[in-house]
């Protein structure tokens, strides 16, 4: 019995994992008003990832959660991720604070991310600006609130503000 208990204890100790929490960024140098993704990944099976304050950024979507479990030769490993799509509010160099997770009363922090935000693209050239000002698309919906699977009707209204000079280039939709 003592041998069985010792063997069981050693297998549990050998199966223990070093819990880690890492922060990654899709790009560390971004343009102003450019969307990029920040992902926090942990191998802990328990605990909730607490993201840092995104005070220098605007969260445009997220959090997205994903999990992965692998069993290879009886050894179980798992990863969980929490991702956010964000946009920088102003240019400069910013350090995103660490995210954290609490597992078995122990606080584990991620690495900090250094993100450089540049001015971005220069002013649009005159042709691009004219094209954007001379064309507009409006989408009208038959309903404002719908449930999953409910059919709706969308009307697309395209408006060209400049006169058309050559009618041979206009094609009917399929």
What does this structure look like?
The protein is mainly beta and 174 residues long. It has two helices and eleven strands, in the order H-E-E-E-E-E-E-E-E-E-H-E-E. The protein has helices at 2-15, 126-133; strands at 21-25, 29-31, 35-42, 57-72, 75-88, 92-96, 100-103, 106-109, 113-118, 135-141, 154-160. The strands form four sheets. It has a four-stranded antiparallel β-sheet with strand order 1-3-5-4, with no helix packed on it. A three-stranded mixed β-sheet has the order 2-9-6, with no helix packed on it. It is extended and about 70 Å long. Strand 7 (100-103) and strand 8 form a beta hairpin. The N and C termini lie far apart (78 Å). Mean pLDDT is 79; it is low at 1-15.
Main sheet summary:
4 strands, antiparallel
**How are strands sequenced across the largest beta sheet?**
1-3-5-4
Number of helices: 2
What is the H-and-E element order? HEEEEEEEEEHEE
Distance between the termini: 78 Å
Helix content: 10-25%
Which blocks of ≥5 consecutive residues have pLDDT under 50?
1-15
Q: Which structural class do you get from the secondary structure elements? A: mainly beta
Shape estimate: extended
Which range does the strand content fall in? over 45%
Whole-number radius of gyration?
26 Å
How many strands in all? 11
Could you tell me the mean pLDDT?
A: 79
